[in-house]
């Protein structure tokens, strides 16, 4: 949320249109819309409050928002290890040392993502 390609001078309007369209299509097809924020933890990007407020007002309880950046940040704090150590892809050297080479999510990150999204969906369905 909040990262859109240029050129546009009307990003807030475009975001509202896009997310409304997607959520409406999901509702129309009896699907639960799930909006996932991921990948910006280290950039410290936050979703636009006006967009989230609009979606909450327009679609209260009809979509799920999952902030995986927040979950990663909480995991870093809880475990006391760096983001890179916990979530980057690495290779084990012949000496057993982890060599971090790719900032894309590793298996542990994917497991965390899947668990978090699944739990949010279960919680939403139980309401």
Written account of the structure:
There is one protein chain. With 127 residues, this protein is an alpha+beta fold. It contains five helices and four strands; from the N terminus they run αβαβααββα. The chain has helices spanning 11-28, 49-59, 68-79, 83-87, 107-125, and strands at 34-37, 64-67, 88-92, 98-105. It has a two-stranded parallel ribbon with strand order 1-2. Helix 1 packs parallel to helix 2. The mean pLDDT is 86.
List key phrases describing it.
two-stranded parallel sheet; two-stranded antiparallel sheet; 4 strands; 51% helix; alpha+beta; elongated; 127 residues
Kindly summarize this structure in a few lines.
The protein is of the alpha+beta class and 127 residues long.
Total number of helices: 5
Oligomer: single chain
Based on CA atoms alone, the radius of gyration comes out at 17 Å
**Strand portion:** 15-25%
Mean residue pLDDT: 86
Summarize the amount of helix as a percent range: 40-55%
Distance between the termini: 25 Å
Topology:
Elements lengths: L10 H18 L5 E4 L11 H11 L4 E4 H12 L3 H5 E5 L5 E8 L1 H19 L2
Parallel strand pairs: 1-2
Antiparallel strand pairs: 3-4
Helix pairs in contact: 1-2
């Amino acid at each position: 949320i909040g990262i859109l390609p240029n050129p546009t001078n009307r990003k807030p309007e475009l975001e509202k249109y896009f997310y409304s369209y997607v959520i409406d299509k999901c509702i129309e097809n009896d699907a639960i819309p799930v909006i996932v924020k991921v990948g910006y933890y280290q950039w410290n990007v936050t979703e636009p409050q006006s967009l989230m407020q609009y979606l909450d007002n327009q679609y209260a309880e009809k979509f799920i928002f999952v902030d995986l950046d927040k979950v990663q940040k909480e995991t870093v704090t809880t475990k006391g290890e760096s983001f890179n150590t916990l979530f980057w892809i690495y290779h084990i050297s012949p000496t057993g040392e982890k060599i971090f080479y790719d900032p894309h999510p590793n298996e542990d990150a994917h497991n965390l993502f899947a668990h978090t999204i699944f739990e949010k969906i279960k919680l939403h369905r139980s309401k």
